[in-house]
Automatic annotation (TrEMBL):
Keywords: ATP-binding, Glycerol metabolism, Kinase, Nucleotide-binding, Transferase. It comes from Agromyces humatus. This is Glycerol kinase. Belongs to the FGGY kinase family. PROSITE patterns: FGGY_KINASES_1, FGGY_KINASES_2. PANTHER family: GLYCEROL KINASE (PTHR10196:SF69), SUGAR KINASE (PTHR10196).
Amino acid sequence: MADYILAIDQGTTSSRAIIFDKAGSIVSTGQLEHQQIFPRAGWVEHDPAEIWRNTGEVIGQALGKANLTRHDIAAVGITNQRETAVVWDRTTGEPVYNAIVWQDTRTQAIVDRLATDGGVERFKQQVGLPLATYFSGTKIVWILENVPGAREKAEAGDLLFGTTDTWVLWNLTGGVEGGVHATDVTNASRTMFMDLETLQWDDEILAAFGVPRSMLPEIRSSSEVYGVANEHSLLRETPIAGILGDQQAATFGQAAFDAGEAKNTYGTGNFLIFNTGEEIVHSKNGLLTTVGYKLGEQPVHYALEGSIAVTGSLIQWLRDNLGLISSAAEVEELAKSVEDNGGAYFVPAFSGLFAPYWRPDARGALVGLTRYVNKGHIARAALEAIAFQTRDVVEAVNADAGIDLTELRVDGGATANDTLLQFQADILGVPVVRPVVAETTALGAAYAAGLAVGFWSNLDDLRANWQEDRRWTPSMEAGERERLDRNWKKAVSKTLDWVDDDVA
């Protein structure tokens, strides 16, 4: 039998291919960044053709570095930036518009229009989500309403929609030559169109949005063989057997399979997922109800999620927009050059505030400034903002779950920052734990694919792979913790009600 699983991780800033062995260890990696396109304030786009080209190239990089061929790969898993919407022509394979990224806020007018009948929670009982620019549904509507000819083509059945997992799967399995048009339950649960109980597209909601059902991919489980790579691929005839949206994949990679288990991913944004098992829990505290995973014919597992829009991308902003640092890694040294934040708080509401506030009218603010504050304090305030936002979400999880989280498993690129993780433990008052394999997003997709083809036998095999790398325990006094959090919440209050008729 082939000895490895390949995971395609189609993320917000880059596409990666990572090859894993049976122990869940990384064998090799290929990675390419893609262009971030900002046509206007609040608009964020990607070029789907560039993403697909890069996907093929990183597969070649990963295979080449490990001196492996398709015969060594048992299966392929896909994980992806979840709500980013691609619409393309089924006959030509060409996108009709750039991918509209999950961070994009251009669809607020569509959200407002849909909310006139029933408010932002109009569909929340069925889909677990409030009406928001974050999710794919309004992005499809925008394309249909703003791209010339798109509405007519869609009504004629000539357009296909997919999040980037579907785009990669369709191209990898043949594209216009019989490509598989499918997604899994986790990605489908982020569109605003999937009923959480039936796991099917809801025709009444589609009608309210004005989106033809013919555009939508088939909803499948997270772990099954969807098809095989086509003859033009380096992976030809290899089964594609796992799909999980990136945050669900990270949860799966952390072996948080059971109710009550949770993880927090530190990426472009932060995403905390709390597994609620086979029970749908409707949040009363600003969290999303979503699908955690579904393995083949087994029952679906649900989750509560706290989504934070801007965390790692705030550090990129310090680098790219302000030139405060020349690499993301430098932010830790700059933050360590001062003892505290100097009274400065940075609320990065660049795309409004996501969980638990859901305030699209908010915009970023740096508050508490005095002549004393220097660039070290600003770097520290940026790092602390990541941890403060996570505390906001943990408080909501604790309230919804009725029990307090006792430790937080973490993953993602920013977990290389020890200063951040110590402050995270301090401001939460609970231990923060990082696993040996921090690339849990790709690992989760690999696990889903491997389970489908028998590479791993069961979840116990995967639990046995998880190993603790390091643990941070709280060292801050409770009074200081609460003082800092009070000031943070005061800072958040200063960002609200910014966008109105005067501010586009």
